[in-house]
Amino acid sequence: MRLIQISDCHFRAKANELRYGQNADANLERMLSQVRAWRPDRIVATGDLADTASVEAYERLFERFRSLACPVHVLAGNHDDLGAMRSQLGQGIDQPLWIDHPPWRLVMINSHVDGQPWGRVSREELKRVEQAIDCPHHVVAFVHHPPAPVGSPWADRQGLTNGNELVNMLLNKPIELLSFGHIHHLWQGRYRGLKMVSAPATFSQAKPGCTRFIDDDRPPGARWFELGENGELASGVLRAL
Ligand SMILES: [Fe+2]
Question: Number of structural domains, the chain?
């Protein structure tokens, strides 16, 4: 399976509105030409899809997603509004608990907490994720907020408040990789033995290692995954030209 993770599109209600000198619509479009050329079978979009969480933002963003002509599976981030987001699902865009594409299962973990920049995986969600991972497939999981420190203090203040609880549950489970968004920069490593990576944003890029969000001049990015028939996993980053 050829999979692309898109994250942190931060669409505003009005098209092409500049925020921090960035145009979310134009940046996404630059990214999508690269995504199209890569020919994914599926897309996962891991939150902060809208910046102001208006219906108009989701309507416009999902129309762009539909132009990719492959299924798109979404998760909510801290900026998202569940009601507004869900009102625009359908026609190839869903918010599933998991996606089976044998021999792979993609598990989607909800960390959204209404009105808060940080995230939390509820007790019920932890239970559900634990059950979803207990399957005969190879598993890759996705969540918006990083469960572990990423070395950028501003992002670490807004991570998962119970990241350790999630990691405790995932340890010793047959999970190949956990990927997140939210931090707008690349990160990869192991945390307590669990292999984790991030996807860059399609909106604005942050310089890693800063106490506050400082713009980086890298182009919009997305993460690609090649998930093989025998459990082989390769991943890397696509950048807009
Ligand atoms: Fe976020």
Answer: 1
